[in-house]
Amino acid sequence: MTSRITLLHLALAALLAPAAALAASGEQARLPSMPGYVHAYDAVDPQGNRIDEYVPKGQTVQNWTDMITVNTAPNSASVSPREFLGFMEAGWKAACPDAQAHWVREGEEEGRPFAVLMLGCPLNPGTGKPEYTWIKGIQGLQGFYTVQKAFRSEPGRDDVVTWVSWLRDVSLCGNGQAPACSPAAR
User: Fold this and answer.
1) Rounded distance, CA 160 to CA 150, Å?
2) How far is it, in rounded angstroms, from Cα 181 to Cα 5?
3) What is the pLDDT of residues 112-139, one digit of tens each?
4) DSSP bridge partners of 149
5) By Cβ atoms counted within 10 A, which residue in 29, 99, 106, 180 is the most buried?
6) Which pLDDT does position 184 carry in this prediction?
7) What's the pLDDT score for residue 167?
8) pLDDT, tens digit (0-9, with 9 covering 90-100), for 39-70
9) How does DSSP assign the chain, residue by residue?
10) What burial letters (b/e) apply to 30-62, b meaning 16+ CB within 10 Å?
């Protein structure tokens, strides 16, 4: 299985037509507090797609047990959450022979369409470890946003409840309809 990051970049590339560089945009994902996590990686591609990754203190993006990933895809606000996450689901299933997928929730929050998808791979062929992730996708006014919580082991019930609840509190800010973003929003 290709790495989770590579799958995400493939999903973004397939969904997005060539676009101008990231325009000045105040809209971004607003994350709840993440005690014990540190910002470990960020990158922006030529189309303005951004990735930020957070891992527990002492871990790296190469060697992690759990990770939070935030992706921003400007110029893709017309893509629905079902379509965007559905493409990720298809890539996951193609890469993992025993893939599992479960649509957790869909609807609107603060006037914006969203969906939450759980993906599981009992044995990731790329790492030899299990990998499970919950992804919240939000169709913004200025782009599409995904926030995901991934585990390189099968998470226990308490972890699932904690992190699905955490994802419920992920929202957008700074688009003129949502609250203004605080300096630490991303």
Assistant:
1) 10
2) 26
3) 999 999 999 999 998 999 999 999 999 9
4) 68, 134
5) 29
6) 57
7) 96
8) 999 999 999 999 999 999 999 999 999 999 99
9) ---HHHHHHHHHHHH----PSPPP---EEEPPP-TTEEEEEEEE-TT--EEEEEEETT--SSS-SEEEEEEEEET-TTS-HHHHHHHHHHHHHHH-TT-EEEEEEEEEETTEEEEEEEEEESS-TTTSS-EEEEEEEEE-SSEEEEEEEEESSPPPHHHHHHHHHHHHT-EEESSSSSPPPPTT--
10) bbeeeeebeebeeeeeebbbbbbbbbbeebeee
Q: Which two tokens stand for residue 3?
A: 């790495």
User: What amino acid occupies position 37?
Assistant: Y
pTM: 0.84
